[in-house]
Records
---
Amino acid sequence: MINPLYDQLFGSHFGKSSPFLRLADGSVVTYAAFLGLAAQMAHVLKQGGLQPGDRLAAQVQKSPEALALYAACVQAGVVFLPLNTAYTTEELSYFIEDSGARMIICDAKVEQALSSITARLELSLKTLNADGSGTLKDGALFMPKAFPTVVRSADDLAALLYTSGTTGRSKGAMLSQANLLSNAFTLAKEWRFTSEDVLLHALPIFHTHGLFVATNVTLVVGASMIFLPQFNVDQLVNLMQQATVLMGVPTFYTRLLDHPRFDRQLASGMRLFVSGSAPLLAETHFQFEDRTGHCILERYGMTETNMNTSNPYDGERRAGTVGLPLPEVEVKVTDPETGATLPVGTVGQIEVRGPNVFKGYWQMPEKTAAELRADGFFVTGDLGKIDKDGYLHIVGRNKDLIISGGYNIYPKEIELVLDAQPGVFESAVIGVPHRDLGEAVIGVIVAEPGGHPDLDQIMAAIQTPLARFKHPKRLVLVDELPRNTMAKVQKDILRKKFKDAFHAV
Ligand code: MLC
Ligand code: AMP
């Protein structure tokens, strides 16, 4: 094998006329067409000067071409760095600079906004628009539909995925080919994937869930995906009878339950519903079972680790738990102070080790050392307990993180922006329960003495530095922030105070 990830996920399907992507308009992209396009793109990357190990940053709308770009990077030995389409130019600039990306692929609409950074860093930029058009495709059209796959080893980096940090500075998680491959094969087996499966794919493809879990598992067995540009509940309901599997964040499931046409009949051809990226309420699990007869299979993962645990395919899918460790993955619950393993049923920090665990944070050896122990255990920052049957329960987080609709939002990043606004003395950003998104962001602001912060102006000012999904859904003014004796802001008190802020939503 000269390039394990390419050879095992993509190359094995080269030239096959079976469908890979089924699009909403009824058209089909076969494996042959997809891999031909990926090969053409790999030529473009090579001609653009990309060497094996170079990073390519992509902020592109979901499309068959965008997915082919992932395959092209793997084939050309280039490290793929996908970026949320909601990120602002300011956010993008950080990722591009920090990663030392050599090429950026973006929508033509943002080309101009990125011109100063591309000029300063002498970066090559190509465009890929939502409809697949752009200079990347223009260049690819004239290239051969086969590409000599670049030699890579299982230990080489395949992707760099940024995850926000508690200090407000995002960290690039380095994922090797082996990390991705081990998880893809494990999940395909555990979840009984076959080439007959049709996965309803409505997740974004810039995160682990939509890019690796959903796509790689499909590729392992040569199945197909109904590939939708974004989540739309009506579309999901209309297409469900053509599918066998759905993977989604909990919001997908609560929205399906709110849909009048979603019932047992509609779900009767489905064999599996998978949920992850955020906690699925036990209540949602039971409502779903009542409505459809299906037990949602909840699993637990992270950008840094891919998937760690899963409820069983056969056997009890226990509501409110994230299941059992996957084969070859070790999970333990430890004392945050001493690192000692805690007994069954005791809450502590969750640590994981296995072939799925990343190689560390890009150019951040101290952060890597702080979270990835020398013995290979990664300290997840999640709090949980293992019950007597071995099921893992996640009960909270040791990190100041909000998960809203499956997107991670780090309060510190927002607080830094709020604190810099005129009239603001300080702020605290919290997540409170939200029926649709699980958690929603509230910004709690204290005015400077004599200051009168204008909340509308603040909302307008945060547009430039922060992606829309990070914006507080509400800003509130308070006289002071509650603090403990160590002067630390007591966010739990704030969360309690504002817990019903979105009650009626
Ligand atoms: C959109 N908005 C959000 C939001 N998504 N706000 C907070 N949290 C979110 N998740 C905002 C938009 O900015 C916009 O704001 C308004 O809501 C409507 O936008 P939209 O695009 O119409 O939203 P919608 O399509 O309804 O999206 C909701 C969603 C989407 C839940 C379908 O967020 C989504 O696809 N989430 C999946 C995230 C994901 O894949 N996570 C996996 C991470 S990997 P305004 O103000 O302009 O109206 C990982 C590892 C693992 O965690 O274990 O899997
Ligand atoms: P990310 O950094 O986007 O990869 O998010 C990873 C985090 O999502 C984890 O550390 C958990 O806090 C959370 N998460 C993922 N899956 C689940 C789940 N099934 N239940 C609860 N939290 C989850």
Note: The mean pLDDT is 96.
---
Amino acid sequence: MLFQRAERLNGIELSEIVQISEAAARLRADGRDIVALSTGEPDLPTPPHVVEAAHAAAQDGKTKYPPTAGIPDLRTEIARQARVEMAQVIVSTGAKQVIANAMLASLNPGDEVIMPAPYWTSYSDIVRMAGGTPIVLPCPMEQGFKLLPEQLEAAITPRTRWLMLNTPSNPSGAIYTKDEIASLATVLAQHPHVWVLADEIYQRLSFVPFTSVAEAAPELVGRMLVVNGVAKAWSMTGWRIGWGIGPAELIKAMAAVQGQVTSGACSISQWASLAAITCDPKLLEERRDLFAQRRDLVVAGLNAVPGLRCDAPDGAFYAFPSCAELLADHGGPFKNDADFCGWVLEEAGVALVPGRSFGLPGHFRLSFAYAQDTIAAGLERLKSAVERKL
Ligand code: PMP
């Protein structure tokens, strides 16, 4: 008998970002010169002292099954920095697993999860895999890609379980101000059944003042899960460590899920992550400043391309320009954002991700987690290809 996929996988495939990266790799293998600006993975190496800590952990025999919710040393340090108890912290195999644990631990079929678009592509797939229903609220460029209180109010139903808030955002780079978070919290005060998932994994890559959701809305911490991790700011994507901070009952339920899926996260990576999060803050500031320089290069480069419009992102390492003027409904040559990105890959050899992957068509995402030369080459090729086409 043919293999039959479970219904919970309906509509869930490899993410478009992975598919584009693979298409770029295939073109490269065919001998094409491809500039990939499609992945959210910093080019910088993991800091040497972190690698040394991992080496030491392996040599010290820290190689046994770790406790399911994380090694106490790392959990304690995360708890100390967040001013919570260790029981309110779980360490997982990447921030992605934290989010998946939370959804599997809390959603029943038909439960709704509100996600302002553009959102990180995995949110909707994780929610659907866990039996929930994503409720996508378009937040256009004109409102800074941010959710407005009246949109939130109108979307809440008795089935709403979570609001996903990602600040700084992948893909828009938007950062919610303290006041903006407070106005969303005012809405949520009327709806005590709605929990908040605050994904702050790009917190250390903020180019404007950053306020955490917990700090701006302390009255919500009893129903809030904060997600963070080492992948982005410390260039540790491959080490697979992220964590969640929330009420102990939620954390316990998430640990029950994790205990049956992966058990504790890699012991060596956890020791390395402890070295990362206790590092000299100067290291993170230097990295942030480097990304700020790249951001300026990217925003200027994109706005120099006819038909593109790009506002400066406040954080993370993505630009999310509008390509609406190049699309058919504005009299432009391309059917939609995916058609445009496909053409750019073929014609200019530059890999970008269409906005539809993030729930907001008419845009694309360009990652500037790449070396300056690579970014400059990509922008130049994009500009000359579009100029030739118009
Ligand atoms: N949240 C957001 C907004 C992200 O962009 C990512 C990574 N692309 C993650 C979570 C997952 O991070 P990790 O690599 O730690 O699983």
Note: The two ends are 53 Å apart (CA to CA).
---
Amino acid sequence: MQDIQRLGVYTSGGDAPGMNACLRAVVRTALSNDLDVTGIRRGYEGMIEGDYVEMDRRSVSHIVQTGGTVLKSARSEDFMHKEGRARAAQQLRKAKIDALVAIGGDGTFRGASKLHEEHEFPVIGAPGTIDNDLYGTDATIGYDTALNTAIENIDRVRDTADAHNRLFLVEVMGRDAGFIALNSGIGGGAELILIPETITEMDMVKERILSLMSAQRRSTIVVVAEGDELGGARGIEQALRDDPEFSDIDLRSTILGHTQRGGSPTAGDRVLASRLGVAAVEALLDGHSDVMVGLVNGETKLTPLRNVYGRRKSIDYDLLKLTQILS
Ligand code: ATP
């Protein structure tokens, strides 16, 4: 067992709904195991600057239902360099922090792994990102909420698209992964879904749209992942506007953007975040380090951080086939 008396916890990278629920679970599990807990504000930026706050049970009261992160998040250029990480380690030692729980995405875990390697801090990762692009867990904290927000907005777009027989290109988030696009497209009944995991050719997109529009549908919705290689919804819109074959088609594009990051976490995200927060502290107390806690087939599972950021999580290709049948 590692001799841990004080645990440090931070949220880092892109914020995700459910990070607060995870933080609450980490703090309360640590306290109930007689550990002291320090909250590190603003991710690695705050870690380097010593922007720390003592956490007690009350400091995480009534946050299970809130979006964002009460510890704030940030991106830190300094932490990308060895000297920055050495300054962070110095601050952590000064604050008597013996171990860390990092809530964030793959960049956060790359940094955590380096801190572990260079300064021997025990560290456990909890997957907090809306993109769902982390190997080692079926879902990341925040993904379910973002997906539901995307679907709700696609439903709204459908109403207005129907009223005018319009073609809508709806761009959703996900960076270079297509999980939100694929699943919100299916859930929102999109006629076409474009994701980075498959090759998207403009000629194919045009042909498919023309065939959909000629079938006299009331409306057509194309869900486009922000990381799709044709330049997202705006890139496709421009190409269609430049093509005389599309001059009669009433076309609009909309980018859902940061609405997908905010809002109260869904029940699924709250429960996932709570389970993983508890599991992260238990894993530390069991002597594990440099691993991420995830949920795979309903069971918590530990995956080495290097595998989490070193491997690409695959989308479900059967779901892609489904869209061809359903659209
Ligand atoms: P999301 O996927 O939601 O954007 P993330 O954790 O991947 O979350 P990043 O901005 O990629 O977000 O990373 C967060 C921070 O982690 C960075 O600002 C940087 O300080 C640190 N970091 C990222 N990559 C590395 C690396 N290779 N070495 C050291 N630190 C890193």
Note: The pocket of adenosine-5'-triphosphate is lined by residues 12-14, 44, 75-76, 79-80, 104-108, 110-111, 114, 129, 131 (CB under 6 Å).
---
Amino acid sequence: MTASTAVVKSAGESRAMSNPYVKQWLDECITLCQPDKVVFCDGTPEERKRLFQEGLKTGDFYELNQKKWPGCYYHRSNSNDVARTEHLTFICTPSEDMAGPTNNWMSDRQAYAKLKPLYRGCMKGRTMYVLPFVMGPAESVLAKVGIELTDSLYVAASMSIMTRMGNVAWDVLDKPGNANAFTRCLHSIGDVNPDRRYICHFPLDNTIWSFGSGYGGNALLGKKCLALRIASYLGRQQDWMAEHMLLMGAQAPNGEKSYIAAAFPSACGKTNFAMLIPPDRYRDWKVTTVGDDIAWMWVDEQGKMRAINPESGYFGVVPGTNSKSNPNAVKSMQKDTIFTNVALVTLDDGTYDVWWEDSDMPAPAKALDWQGKEWTPASGTKAAHPNSRFTAPAINNPVLDENWDDPAGVPVTAIMFGGRRSKTIPLVFQSFNWIHGVYIGATIGSETTAAATGAVGVVRRDPMAMLPFIGYNIRDYLVHWFHMRKKMTDCPRIFLVNWFRKDEKGRFVWPGFGENMRVLEWIINRAHGRAYAKETPLGWMPRPEDINLEGLTIDKSDFVKIQTISAEEVKQEIISQEELFLKLAGDLPKEMLFQRELLISRL
Ligand code: SAT
Ligand code: MN
């Protein structure tokens, strides 16, 4: 440790220093980064308040009007730093085969050598925040501790919302045999230069080094980096799964409760689905949220699959969120929330308000846009960045599930895969069995939207919606999915859904949003062995009379239309899956080949 570093004495400091592994790693990182000051965070609401106050001075935060937005703050990130940078994200292992064909790979030694000079002295003149956190309820069999060292106030405040932070983490490390069981997360925003930006994962060392970005998925290292990439690697070693899935509860009028895990690629409405409000006709049903982004799943002693949400907050897309599209998200962000990269509006009394496209509020006459530039409705540009975000505590969610924090997790009744597909893929079908379900999940595709750069409407394969998040070789990941079945006495039923199928005039046929409840009801009834389905080449499908269509603007013939399977279109689909299969070259698990052949022969 350099003599010029001031370590702020606190309870957290003494707990950190009493752990020899933490102490040694911390000493190394302080010597490398040379911060002026080291602050140990405890994750309390009082501390978060102090971080916000500090941020008002440094310019990291703006305080919103506290009457309208109690406890809410605004943050603007660098305009070159507003989304995850998959091309700068690496799995760093001795052999390239460990990372596999879908990840960027760097040798671990090379990565350390490349990044060390970047970190050297990078925190001079800055404060290093030490963030001890737990992913998952601390008493859960899957709970994982991480410690993030960061020079970003925004990251410190955000992590205290998104994770269980503070003493709870030191307590887990103090249990016998746990002292060294933590993910070492080193983060610096550096000079936010994309040419010096690296998000590196070292699964063999349980280590993450992130440099040069302050954006959520790149910088809140508990989220995608730990809870998906590192965790998926650990899950493979330890027989559990880390998946990019929402977790929701659905309680039927008779009190029966089912839990569903669902994987949709980005921009397919995961957060909206996890907070779904049943339509009037389903008033006696209750839908509740366990999680909106990540599920960790394992097999319990009875051979049943259970799941926890490792996070304790939501980091959701803001534009398009309003009391029609997602009333529960609107309520979740009403207090104690950080808004990032939306538009900032100055009110008459000089306090600040926020605005975004498709919010409940009409556009303001003028505002500062997400880049801090003067904006008016005539500007012809977006005021809020399409990927602007809210960071809100889970406890704000009015439909938070009563078991969301239960260390025993929730039982998983069904797994859904989905994507945005204007043709070919029907509204809903069930896989014939687990292996067929894995094939369906592994081959899901989604059409690119205007929110992302590049051509719109191109189908991109995104296996299990995990393409950028699998922390090891996709071949082994798929084999792991097959292997998990062998551990279960009975397994969740697997379904594919597509809310986005269009008619010949290019209009969405299915009404979506709360009406997805009708599909959910069929899925739940199928999973419990109660609903009828007919066999088709793709899987088990409901007939119009098997789904409640009462009171909808669409009729049975519309329903038949979006359930139609065209052999020609499915053949095209199989051909377009080749792109993914070729990437896996000689490594494709045989089950995948068999499933494809069986599908072809069913046509
Ligand atoms: O990658 S982020 O966590 O920033 C957002 C997301 O894709 O869920
Ligand atoms: Mn996500």
Note: The chain has three domains: 6-40+88-238, 243-310+405-602, 315-396.
